[in-house]
Amino acid sequence: MPAHKNKQPKPSILITGAAGALAQQVIQRLRETCNLVAVDARVRVELGDQIPSYCIDFNKRTFEDLFRRYQFDTVIHMGRIRSSQLSRMRRYNANVLGTQKLLDLSHKYGIRRVVVLSTYHVYGAMAYNPALIDESAPLKSAGLSADLIDSVELENLASIYLWRYPELNISVLRPCNIVGPSVRNTIAKLLASPLAPVMAGFSPMMQFIHIDDMADAIVLASQKPTRGIFNVAPNDWVAYQRALELCGCTRVPIPSVPPALPRLILRTIGLKRFPAYLMDFFKYPVVIDGRAFENEYGFTPKRSLKEIFRFYRDNKKPL
Amino acid sequence: MSLVSFVKSLLVSSELDEQINHIRKPIGTLGYDPWGYNNEAVKFGFSLVKPIYEKYFRTEAHGVDHIPAEGPVLIIGNHSGQLPIDGILVGYALASRKKNPRIPRAMIERFFPTVPWLGNLLNEVGAVLGDPVNCARMLANNEAIIVFPEGVRGSGKLYRDRYKLQRFGAGFMHLAMKYNAAVVPVGIVGCEETVPSIANIKPLAKALSVPYVPLALPIVFPAKVHLNFGPPMYFKGGDFSDAEIDERVDQVKTEINRLIEKGLTERKRLF
């Protein structure tokens, strides 16, 4: 018999990708007011007695047991494996097939709110991108890089379920670069390192959101069941090379033309923090428009770019 | 003192610094806007263009006050001279006018963003990839935008076709009507003579993936430039057929032709 059969006063929330820094922040914000269950496909996270935590592959049968045992009201899916992790095939299994399983189970067990964390990378970086890309823009990255296909496929799946099962109230969030303390994604590692590669002669406009602000945004989204796809980004912009300067990074230019040259160099070096498939994101701008999310959820980022960069400058490890 | 601030102190006077800071732009906390415009870069650009505008081309601008002090504006001109010198001069004329100066934006060719250094530099001083979405968003931001509806058809034309307006794209008219933007026509005389080209080396242009490669001397002649701005034209929005839109585009074209004729009459000599 399920352990929590009785109706609970607190909403019950499943959080995937619980080992990530952002998920930890979301858990901190929700642990008092909600009954949380944390899942991660990579490791089991220790979250104390209050929060059950599991290390489960979504494609395994045991995953469904969680839905049977805890009657979830909401699912916050932050378990997308980043393109810098695992092989393409394993990522496809986790991100696409795993997400499909998660959405199927959400439908089967009557979940009323699903928040899916995606990325602005799905728009793809190319020279002809206009600025302030809105949510209806085509997702070009699948055609530009095979390493981002699983991220686009994950979004396509979420969109299909969004229309097919409106009662799931799915929202997809496409944040800009998430940075701040303990974030370990590509851009955060670059800002944190003393030496940062740049594409010679290119300094695209970028947007950065502090991890605390992003966690606030996810919490807001989980509490208001508006269906849809939303960019999440502050109305503030900075050129990549200027951001590195403000973070106290020494810039290391990589020859940028013809395009085959930097690709060859990056593939040869194999730098994790400056992967070849993200090369174009350091050449061409992908500036997104976050106003729809701000208006819908009354969200305003609180941490300024200066504050974000000051953190990286003050915490720079000398070589 | 860092090298940047040293060069700045040489180039940018405190008066100019104040003047540019005074012009209000929708920029973020670090001085950038979403398209890469940067206030500090504009100050450098302004200082460098000043002698080119005043001494090299001895530009005479008439009617620049026709450009409204605020609100969305499309400045529509004739394109010429292989290099985008005309856009720079029109931009400087507006940015340096005594009453209510504005820093305009310019829509540029699609190949510029792929050129290292140059692409970023152009973005920083206000030039933006010529995409209708960009133009629409900037009009919504109440910007003044310089548009050459002839595009490369105008700038790449040969010397023998000087001052003959090429086909105008109608995109600017759709946007002007949608955003209720003032259309300010400008007739540019003199830029045709800056880089006279007698032929377009098409195979080389194709090999380099650029719109054209002019067969011309590798110098920019110091032709005297006349800019004649006309009164703003307003076009009411609504559901119009393509033929009706073309008619409106022709009205603007006719006005630009008139302003070019005016400039040609005013011009006493080429240099």
UniProtKB/TrEMBL annotation, chain A:
<dbReference type="InterPro" id="IPR001509">
    <property type="entry name" value="Epimerase_deHydtase"/>
</dbReference>
<feature type="domain" description="NAD-dependent epimerase/dehydratase">
    <location>
        <begin position="13"/>
        <end position="233"/>
    </location>
</feature>
<protein>
    <submittedName>
        <fullName>SDR family oxidoreductase</fullName>
    </submittedName>
</protein>
<dbReference type="InterPro" id="IPR036291">
    <property type="entry name" value="NAD(P)-bd_dom_sf"/>
</dbReference>
<dbReference type="InterPro" id="IPR050177">
    <property type="entry name" value="Lipid_A_modif_metabolic_enz"/>
</dbReference>
<dbReference type="Pfam" id="PF01370">
    <property type="entry name" value="Epimerase"/>
</dbReference>
